[in-house]
Fold each of these.
Amino acid sequence: MTTAAWDILEIDALLTPEERDIRDAVRALLDKKVRPHVAGWFEQAALPARELARDFGELGLLGMRLHGHGCAGMSAVAYGLACLELEAADSGIRSLVSVQGSLAMEAIHAYGSDEQKDRWLPGMARGELIGCFGLTEPDHGSDPASMATRAVADGDGWLLRGVKMWITNAPVADIAVIWARVPDAGVRGFLVPLDTPGVTVREITQKLSLRASLTGEIVLDDVHLPADAILPGATGLRAPLSCLTEARYGIAWGALGAARDCLETALAYATTREQFGKPLAGFQLTQAKLADMALELQKGLLLALHLGRTADAGRLTPPMVSLAKLNSTREAIQIARTCRTILGANGVSGEYPIMRHANNLESVLTYEGTSEIHQLVIGQTLTGIPAFS
């Protein structure tokens, strides 16, 4: 991507040549495999997830920050730029990659045994196997400490019972990382092949957001697992929350990709669409909107880049990620809504990507931690007082 008119700060110049090459390679793949089709996928509420996973695996996008087991081992900034480009195509596309790499593969890589890593990670890195992450429940979203799913020792293994809801990739996944409460041991993670007897996956339909993404409910009805299904290194809520921090980092970049695509669309439209004898871009109110949006987008990109450099230096903290995720999602959805006004009635047409991005960002604003939750994380960091309960 060359420096665009809205990139007044020339943020592109702050990237290394390798980072720009990675970003450009991701964008080229999306231009070929996703952009020509994604409006149709959104309209049809469908996604060729397995085909795309193999394409993404071939480029090294799955488990991009992980080392070994066929993973690319790239930098945090490179991963952030990939997320930016993925979500510039569609939030559902970035979600496919984020859930696979930052949640499912991250959990196995960080907390799994050598045998579990050897069994699952190479195929997941290639996109031959798809994973999902079962934390959210029908009655427990922002409060995972109250999860109702239970795992109990059962002879030579484990017995799981519970329901997980709003699970991205579940309808096509081969393996799920399921988080359950174990008596006297707290929250633990389990690897559950989704063809195991007692597991039922139901695709969630009638979504008005993230329609180019496959979302499901996972019902665990006395599912018997072998003893080695447990993730040995995952003890307590800190384990799944650490995976969420990784996913939120990607969202901090990704949401800005959706915002960028909206702004580029609005700029192109405003400079060619004429009203009252001149282009829309010639009116003061339109220029004010464009200026404010460019300002917020560039501020967000600088914050995301700083976050990535901090991560690569090993200093990233959850409050930093909360601050960036809160800013990126809040500003991105406002940019999408403002761009829609510039296009007028055309802004709601599927011919343009803006309303699709705006609808998607309604979900991005609330998943992996709602804006309110991230405000409270920042508030606790400032005051030292937890306000979650």
Amino acid sequence: MRNERAVSLHRLSCDGLVKDHGGSFQLGPLSLEFADGVTCLVGPNGAGKSTFFRIAAGLEKPTSGSVRLPRGKSDERISPLGYLPQILDMPPGATCEEFLHYVAWVHRIPAGRREKAVADVLSRTGLAERVTSKIRTLSGGMARRLGIAQAMIHDPVMLLLDEPTVGLDPRQRLALRETIAAIAAERIVIVSTHLVEDIRGLADRVVVLDGGTVVFDGDVPALEAKSDPGAPGETDLERALATLMGAPE
């Protein structure tokens, strides 16, 4: 666990949120509130994590219930949220700077502020020395950091990061977790993950989904306390997740 945070300034609220996929799967009903800091959204494949992200990002509408986004910055033209999907298509022949200038334009950042916005976000994600690098030359870890940079370019108060460390080696995952922790001080960050090391290294709070419903909501020590000694896993955290998600022994 990392240090306790100051009182949150932002809130994402879900009230009775339901998404029904034609009887094959239902997410919810979910009534949750997210505050500043890092919340790890955890669950097996098909638990509803990506569905929740798409609804929170405005890409899908709920069947019923509501999602209330946090209030954004003073410029109401600019979205209060940034989104990194699992797969982000970026133009391989563009430089990091060119790509981010385009994303800044999409987010309606005024022309006079774009240069600084690009420089700031490259610095905050550890890519300041890659300004003129072509995207196709970036390592997997750098490409994911650029994905976070594009999600942050408009300085949103909420970030949705869907499996941001997937496919990275241990060193790259550590560097990316450090990046995420550094940018989460004054914003809501929700990270979808199935990696135990991400949970332990990032989470101020953990929400576990299974079958579209919340089966746990709390911090890492409280999650570890759910561990069943007979469940599979090498640590209390792994055994707790296996216990909550009904993994076979």
Amino acid sequence: MLTRNLIRNSKFLYSKLKQPTRVIRWNGQVSSQVNVPDGVVSALVGIVGKSNVSTAEAVREQHGHDESYHKTAMPGVVVFAQSTEHVSQIAKLCNDNEIPLIPFGTGTGLEGGVVATKGGVSVDLTKMDQIVAVHAEDFDAVVKAGVTRQTLNTYLRDTGLMFPIDPGADASLCGMCATSASGTNAVCYGTMRENVLNLEVVLADGTVFHTAGEGRRTKKTSAGYNLTNLFVGSEGTLGIITGATLRLHGIPDATAAAVCSFPTVQQAVDSTVQVLQCGIPMAKIEFLDEVAVDACNKYSKLDLNVAPSLFLEFHGSGTSLEEQVSIVDDLCKMNGGGDFKWATDADEKSHLWKARHDVVYACTALRPGCKPYSTDVCVPISKLAEVIVKTKEEIDKAGVIGPIIGHVGDGNFHVFFPVDQDNEDEMKVIKGLSEKMALLAISKEGTCTGEHGIGLGKRHLLEKEVGSGYNVMKHIKKSLDPKGIMNPGKIFF
């Protein structure tokens, strides 16, 4: 009651005209950054307690950037929510005062999704770390916003189940919902869109609702609009995801990992297409070009052949694995593949895939002192070799380092440029390459981002990709967030 009175008390409510603002320059554009009035900070303390509100510069700086190349822009205050009710009251307070509200999970995004370009309040959800329920017999789990994928999988260890979506980082599961994450296992298990049954969401005005209805966790439904998938990939611009009901999958009886090198990119992709056409239930098919392989060798102390390579993983029973590996081995050899190495030993597999997951750090280590500029696209698999080859030609022509890594079973690939972010000329070249890569993908019936999201870096490409759907998206945004407080500046200008 005291908290609600604090929020309603007019001395804490400021019109937009009365809010202190300061003008900042963001990526060459002038922007107005809203400061958070002292009265609103006091109201936030009334909601979550003094120990869960911070205006310290170090905390604000931490919450003003993710793992991307985008420059830090700090929020005015960071609030650590501990419940959905907290998030609801924080949203209502910010909406009443027209103060920007930015959700923060683990900060592992790659398109500036948590950058506070307009200042405001960053709501950190990491303390909402409860695993609410696991229904092993129904293959689903209910989690709150702060639970990470590794935490859930550790909790599930004795159930024989797992949550398979693996973007590499130990991201929060609700953050993965917000960005529609996927990763190395998507060729077998799909992306977050296929593995979310229901979401608990807080809207801009503080309303709490469940996208499929409270407590619903059926594998399919024909009841009304698909609100769940509306919020998967919304990047915090429509509401804050505070809970999720997720599909679980059985842990396979046996797994095997393999790596095979090829003379050319085309031959590696041709092998991928043929493997999928044969109906082999691959768990992972990852592509690394020769630059990425060389980086992995140096960073992870491997001795792989420095050539375009496929990293593969098989799931199944012992006998089925042998048959799958044999068929894939034959297909790779038909396409010029050589040096086919595979292993079932847990340590060997772990080392191999750790090297794959560490590839961003390996690529960055090619230029000590630089930071990674990461971008991704996705195309129909029949267009993949053409797009990768043209991308490599553009990278070579520009004379920069740009290792290519791909989830080729999905037609998705990434380029990790190690860059000096303070070198304006170099950043201009890299951004130009990223733009060409995205436009090429769009021209080949693909998308400018398969995993990373639009965020800040690809806003100008969204309308080119979705056409008139862009205005439909803006109408939805306006309807759910009429005052524009939810993660402003992301997805749309």
Amino acid sequence: MTPATTAPIGLRPDLSFLLTDFEQMVLGASRTVAVSVDGLVLCTSDTVDSREQAEYLAAICSGMASLVIGLAQQLGAAAAADIGVRLSIGFVMIAGPFGNAYLMTLAQPQADMGAVNRDLLKLGESVRAALSPEQRR
């Protein structure tokens, strides 16, 4: 895939290289975004098509994670999201929160879902401090 946008996207575009590097190391991962818990784009990989796509993905990621965390709390489980959604084009993986942020990526159908999820969790833990936006007052 070629990058469709050249303008920086998100509140922390200086960290976009982390997501692009993740995709280069994890076979089949693309369109990776880091999202604040309240749905703002923190940064994106180079494979995200546009600012508009990044904002849609961020809103959806935040909403899905919020639903899963709410369900977990109602059932007495830890408030964490580790979501896999199967689509016709692959699997969407959402993980977090890592501080005040979530990570989301699209994995191709032939990708090893376990490996993608494991590496997404490792990425989140390793960049937790950098991706955690300050709490807004």
